[in-house]
Amino acid sequence: MTTLQTALQVLLLIFVVVMLFNIIIFVHELGHFLAGKWRGLQIDRFQIWFGKPIWKKEYKGVQYGLGWIPAGGFVALPQMAPMEAIEGGDKDRKPLPPITPLDKIIVAFAGPLFSILLALTAGLIVWGVGKPKDFVPSTVVGYVEKGMPAEKAGMQPGDVILAVNGEQVNGFAGTLESITERIVLSSGDRIEFTVKRPGVEEPLKLISEFEIPESKWFQRTGMRQVGLAPAGKALIDGVLKGSPADKAGLRKSDVIVTVDGNELFSNIQLAQYLKAKDNKTVSFGIKKAGGEEVVVEITPQSPLKPKGRDPMIGVIWDQTGDVDVRIVHPNPIAQVGDSLKMMWVTISKVADPKSSIGVDQLSGPVGIGKMLYQLLLTENGWRRILAFMVLFNVNLAVLNMLPFPVLDGGHITLAILEKLAGRPVQAKALEIMQTVCALALMSLMLYITSKDLFDPLGREKNSDPGEIIFAE
User: Fold this and answer.
1) Does the 234-321 domain belong in CATH 1.20.1050.40?
2) 3-class SS of residue 391
3) For residue 80, which of 121, 246, 415, 451 sits 20 to 30 Å off, Cα-Cα?
């Protein structure tokens, strides 16, 4: 692919991401707009994105526009609340006729309702075309990192994890019930693992601490880690020419099943074992591609290029078999339900002082945009995008229903209070409240966006060693 083609592809993907955001915002605001029309409210503006319009057009008394700050959008409904300080508008206009609390509730609720309807629409498409499962089904420990909390707690390769903190697990990663997610979302100072160890009749209770990787002030706080990786086949995808594995007759699609007579649970475990053996010959039990089982002895060797590499046997591992990427077809109600559950867990963990999840782990428009871009680069990325549309729109609906001024839930709460009190909140007090909450929300978004932008800086990256050569 030429440089021009690459640049055009990047621009196309960025355009797709921006359009997805616009569709999501447009549909949410369209709900407010149509409800306002239905209830006979004055509508001044319908704008996607905030700030001074870079494009605008008036039609039937409504100004339609596109702002220059690529985040959010709004429908200016002056009878709902005094938002001139935030959205702009004519403060000197003649007073408009008041509307009922029911009108306010209907118009405010219409935005989240339309977001849920868009989530269900995306869910219907996913139901038809499917999405990758993206699930690691194994609950067997394949690797325990030396010096990490799991090793200190007594975890061993081959252990089957049954529960984390008393809650049953489903797979190693990919769902809220999986091992990795239960570790990351755990509360308290200790994590209890219930494991079934081969050869031991009763399940064991192992109490582990956890570590949080260090981060700089401009980066996100790291997630809880204990030093575990799932079991998986040591499936060979390729053999480097002239390497010890090549000389021993190993080939693509062979599987290493034992090392020095011990069962091998993952290729990461093998790398650790070889490093500990310090260049000594190792006996490998190999299951050949045709089903034949053989035993070969291989002595690890450092490659000629690049210099300074640890001794290795010279194989390239097939990593695809550990993750279940089959196309599944969940119904839209289940998709929305799973998204609601994920949203509830996220909010509750952010609010839990005993968890390690904070607001800096949330993503703003920049972070979400980067993730969407990366999803588009994957195989079946468009299917993953559709599935993400369900989650994102549910999140948008739930967050907007929180009872804070500026948000839709705040309008609903104020309307209910107005109905109970028999009079609306004083305009001046309401405007101050709206402005303060809007500034707080914008400050929060700027903080999260700063993490989106600067979190990758200084992070260790997997360096590409380049071509590995064993023989000239």
Assistant:
1) no
2) helix
3) 121
The residue among 69, 73, 93, 85 whose CA lies nearest residue 433 is: 85
Q: What is the pTM of this model?
A: 0.86
Extract the tokens encoding 257: 């099943």
Q: What does R_g of the chain's alpha carbons equal in angstroms?
A: 28
List, for residues 450-463, the tens digit of each pLDDT value.
999 998 887 665 54
Long-range residue pairs from 448-451, CB within 8 A, at least 24 positions apart, any chain: 448/359, 448/360, 448/362, 448/363, 448/364, 448/367, 449/364, 449/365, 449/366, 449/367, 450/218, 451/218, 451/219, 451/220, 451/360, 451/367
Is the distance from CB of 114 to CB of 28 less than 8 angstroms?
A: yes
Question: HSE-up of 298 (CA within 13 Å, CB side)?
Answer: 28
The residue extents of the domains of the chain are 10-131+371-454, 135-231, 234-321
DSSP for 224-272, please give it.
PB--EEE---EEEEEE-TTSHHHHTT--TT-EEEEETTEEP--HHHHHH
Residue 461 pairs with which residues in a beta bridge?
none
* DSSP code, position 217: T
**Residue 85: band (very low, low, confident or very high) from pLDDT cuts 50, 70, 90:** very low
For the record, the structure tokens of 28 come out as 């949410």
Reading the block at residue 121, the tokens are: 């629409």
